[in-house]
Amino acid sequence: MTKKWFRIGMVSVFLLSLALRFWGLERFNTLVFDEVYFAKFGNNYLTHTPFFNAHPPLSQYMIGIGIWIGSHIPFWHDTVNGLTGSLRSPWTYRWFNALTGSFIPLVVAAIAYQLSYRRSFALLAGLFTACDGIFLVESRYALSNIYIVIFGLLGHWFLLLALDNQNRQRSFWLVFAGIAFGASVGTKWNGLWFLSGAYLIWIAAWVIHLINSFLNSKLFLTSSSLKEAGGGESRGAGEAGEAGVSTYSPSSPPSQTPLQNLTQLNIFQMLFYLGIIPALIYSIIWIPHLQLDKTYGFIAVHQQILKFHLQLGGNNPNVHPYCAAWYKWPLMTRPMAYYYQTAKSITEPLPVMGPPLPAGAGQVIYDVHAMGNPFLWWFGVAAMLFLLGMLVSQAVIHWVKEKRFSVPATLSVDTWIALYLVINYAANLLPWVKVTRCVFIYHYICAVVFVFLAIAWFVDQCLRSYYQQLRALGVTITFIILAAFIFWMPVYLGLPLSPNGYKLRMWFNSWI
Length: 512
Hints:
Layout: H1 3-22, H2 35-47, H3 58-71, H4 95-116, H5 119-130, H6 133-139, H7 145-163, H8 167-185, H9 192-228, H10 233-243, H11 267-285, H12 287-292, H13 298-310, E1 336-343, E2 364-370, H14 374-402, H15 413-429, H16 445-463, H17 468-493, E3 496-497, H18 499-505
Helix pairs in contact: 1-4, 1-5, 2-3, 4-5, 4-6, 4-7, 5-16, 6-17, 7-8, 7-9, 8-11, 9-10, 9-15, 14-15, 14-16, 14-17, 15-16, 16-17
């Protein structure tokens, strides 16, 4: 793919994301789902109203900034309500999220490109991210999850840029990585999993490096013993070549992915740039909130937040009808409705607040469903399992071939990509295994971005294959994902549906 067509493709993906997020943004003149918290909290900062916040405050700052800017723009104020505590247009407390969410496909594409330097992989990753439902829904309302994701992804992108540079430029990007990771945690605590993923891939790189160093030194000692026994220098060298263990030399090929440079970062750099700086940024983020609400200090407010989450109850429908344990997320067996309202006709105005019409009386259904693109998620999980299987099979094959435990001296670019995606997916999903409070499908939003990257990688491999059947498979998967996005778009955008049209999209009872 040429640079020109890549740029055209990425601009198109961005414009698609932008259009879908801003189109009909003020459609529901009310507070949708957790806007009852976050939109109000954002407005509270503008009115200097103290309040308790069960999460770190960064996303509410962003929403408050959006409200302030939006209130000074002399249009998009046709509909207003006072539900935030002030008379505001829904557009004012939603537009900043919509704009922020529009950039997420670009950041995902940037990560894909930095991992592989393949434009086709990057374009597919951006396109698939733009064709997901839950990201579209979360971007169109004053909610917080978009900020966790974009800051966490920026942290990873900046880290990859740092690995691709040296000296001062590396330090420059590492500082930005630390700031971004700190901002992700400063949105919600589970933003910490993005940072843990960065540490885990760094640890994995060092483990591979140390194993190779140990095996190389052991092989050197063995060959030295053979020479002393009369085996000759040529025999030792031949065995070293057969073992496939090599060290860096000036003639070694240049790095093909920044991940190969992970071992150039030592523990002190990691602790400073990705430890102290994120902690400092996280602490600074709290200052405006603690100045507004002086009820609790820095330590006490964290104790209160932890207490709040521990009291949310078990993870079952008795606590909340949309509670969904972590193992229900990958296959999307329990998405949730953020908004549901019925009307007698399309022209009938929806009430600002209030229950829907009695069953059978409504001829038009407005539903905003926090659900992903089903085929994107299902194909993505299959691709992630494929990558995991690829890693395991490579390790086993190398072990059988060498007849002893070992790892390849150099990993291929695709092996590094697989390792990066699997580790970061696990880092953002597995911590939820031990969480006993009621959790929801939107908590999967940090992990699922790596699923998008996995299916983009798989489709890219298919499209670049010499085999016509694999190229056809890649085209088919892409077409199905795009068609599914269009099919379910009415429940992402809250477009009017007939009862039959609504049921047609609710494939399983657990989706309703």
